[in-house]
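User: Please predict the structure of the protein below. I'd like the answer in structure-token form so I can feed it into my own downstream comparison script.

Assistant: Understood. Taking the following sequence of 433 residues as input:
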Amino acid sequence: MKNFPRILTIFLLVISTAQAQQEKGIIGLNNWLNNWTEFKSNKVDYGEANQILAVNITANTKLYKKNIYLLQGNVYVTNNAVLTIEPGTKIIGDFDTKGTLIITKGASIIADGLETDPIVFTSNRSLRKAGDWGGIVILGDAPLNKFGGVASVNTGSSTDFIPTLTSYGGNNPAGNSGIMRYVRIEFAGSKLSTGGGNLNSLFLAGVGNKTILQNIMISFSGGNSFEIFGGDTNLSQVVSYKSSNDDYRFNYGAQSSLTNSLAIRSSFLSSKNGSRCLDIASYNKKEEVDFSKKQTLVVATNLTLVNNSANINADIESGLVKEAIYIAENASLNCKRTVISGFKPAVLLDNKIQMNEENLAKIKFESMYFNNCKGNIFIVDNSNNEDLESYYGQTNLFNYFSPNSNNAETFIDFANEKRPDFRLQLSKITASN
């Protein structure tokens, strides 16, 4: 028994170290990005398609790993059908027809991959680029804040505005549109042929909280990586990598949680209007929404939001780097234990938001790690952020500000091209505590 105190000390040290690694940014005793993600997707040969998906799916259908499928044009899953996709299946979005998969209201998708055998949606071009094909659209019957409680999505074709195919929204926050788990979506987000703008790699509109959305990686998106309109969604362990537009965009009364998730931006990839890790709004036009309904609320916990730059200071001075998070008026964000590294500034608030007790209660930042950002929290067109810095710098909020720590020393293995590890270094966590 003489060695018992020593063994107990070692055990407690191991436990405390493990707990320390769980505190800020993406978490996990192991690197949960291993096995199923791909950070060099343009180098992967997925093979040639031997099956074509080009017509609407009106009955329960299964796609098999043994085949490679070419997604041509707009393919709708309708009539309450279930589309099941076997782990390891490859679906190739067609460049010429801007292949897009649309799960209509009442239908569902079961894309339940495995960590060692993910489902992959990618492009059929020999040199794949952002926006090669459309993406995946999932439409549900959960609430949104628009008058009437329903809306239609623009899928890029003037012939597609058929309510039964393009409508979303309803009164069912517990709606179930299926499963998206261990899925990669690469090079999606093509330009819309009507209405301007882009499709989004994964568009979730009126999707309910019984839908499982876990371990989804979106790479090189031409539109937003994840766009959530209304609904009641829970996303966890999801990744947006080098999107041209926003990584995560929430609008029209979305009630969403985003947990243990990652966004990696590049200074050289951005839309003309700017691109953010998180863009949170309740509407585009005030007159289109019903203020008696819930407005957008996002609960973001243990995120890592990083600008990947070899020379962040030079990129900031050149105007290539903007804010990581943007919050519009009448929208709410509760952000905890999140790392924001390499932006100018970390957070930008709409100048229509009055800085009073009521609004500050809707915008919470607690136990944050702000790293290497030129300014932390600002209001649009207001260069004086002393009041905000003072408010969010209160000791009881446990926010930590590190002015100039580079990514290589901030994260465990940031530069590893094959198996990067974006968890925060233990020494950084200790310092921030």
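That's the full token string. Residues 4-20 form the longest helix (17 residues).
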